[in-house]
Amino acid sequence: MNDIRNHQRVNDILLGPLERPVLHWLAVHLPAWVTPDFCTFVGTCGALVILVSYVLSNLHPAFLWLASLGFVVNWLGDSLDGTLARHRNIERPVFGFFVDHTNDAACQIVIFLGLGLSPYVGFHVASLTLVAYMLLSVLVYVRTCASGEFKISYGKLGPTEIRALAIGLNAAMFFGGRQAIPLPAGAFGTILINPYDLIVAGIAVLLLVFFLVTAVRESIRMGKTNR
Questions:
Q1: In the prediction, which pLDDT does 152 show?
Q2: Among 60, 70, 99, 210, which residue is least crowded by beta carbons within 10 Å?
């Protein structure tokens, strides 16, 4: 097993060229009282805002915009804590790795629970996507311990892109409203298709593909090197 303190971080995401300068600028200009732990707390608050907003979207669709704001707050806190620690040279590799990713897992559960409790995406679809997300997360952590590489981007996609997709989905749900498209299904009569379910299920399939491909590839590689 590799020492978690010496892992190599890989985050080759599509939005990286935009994200990294913003995070660096914030890390340079934030006052001293803003600590990495405070940023983690802010990210957690963002996840709770998302949960409450999705639930409240049962009352009015405008709460979807509040959910999108929650995604921005969650991104800011979750992405900035590590950047700030590295900029100030106050990294605590083991503590940070444990607390940050334990908190991330709790936040993901909160977010997908909220999505499933909204009137736009089925709870079963949100739960399936949560399972896929958690599977990939577990693989990332196990692979970090096994190979020493902490890779959080697959196919140029990472948590930042997932948040961007969620904000886009929120906008689509706000303007499109609740959808149930009837489709003829032969002997089964007519079935109702929810396009938002299809989009979220598509993300679940993509995450599962990343999980399976990476798990098989890494198993073969480690088997050949007898590690």
A1: 81
A2: 60
